[in-house]
Design goal:
mainly alpha, rod-shaped
Length: 176
């Protein structure tokens, strides 16, 4: 059982009481010598697996990968549009995005005979047709009837008839 006592000046120099250990305060704290902790930090080991590539080598490897994706696409293209073909196109789009940061689009398309994964995707998987305009509320639909000039011509004629009737009535009401 661990006993907790108030610390006093005398208690700090006495050994720590614990069932598992009986060490003095100085033995309990194991510190490194200051000289050994100031040693140089070790460098990362140079292994043959970790190689830093130059920009030209990166471009060359990415182009090889992009051409391989293109050839896989050409093989799969003859079959029906499938999810696998869609995945190949997504890979090609990602590959082209990375390469276009390093080389021009025209230079990249030169390696794959002008093939563009975005146009191929649009051809094989066309987007759904868009609905005409925005959805309109019922009040908006009712407001569309006021765009018809024939309706306004009728309203104008009714207004003219009311004006003529009012003028006729007001003339009869006035004594001459």
């Amino acid at each position: 059982m661990l006993q907790i006592k108030k610390k006093t000046a005398e208690a700090t120099s006495s050994p720590i009481t614990n069932d598992s250990q009986n060490k003095t305060r100085e033995e309990a704290m194991d510190l490194d010598d200051p000289l050994t902790s100031l040693e140089d930090t070790p460098k990362r080991p140079n292994s043959p697996e970790i190689v830093v590539l130059s920009k030209k080598e990166k471009i060359r490897l990415l182009i090889k990968e992009h051409v391989a994706i293109w050839t896989r696409f050409e093989k799969e293209k003859s079959s029906v549009a499938t999810n696998e073909l869609r995945q190949i196109l997504h890979q090609a789009q990602d590959s082209q995005k990375v390469l276009q940061r390093m080389i021009t689009k025209e230079e990249l398309e030169g390696y794959v005979k002008g093939w563009n994964p975005w146009t191929a995707k649009r051809e094989l998987f066309p987007p759904p047709p868009k609905k005409e305009g925005k959805k309109r509320s019922s009040t908006s639909k009712r407001a569309q009837q006021y765009d018809d000039p024939r309706v306004w011509a009728d309203v104008f004629e009714i207004g003219q008839a009311w004006r003529a009737a009012y003028n006729q009535r007001s003339r009869k009401a006035l004594p001459h």
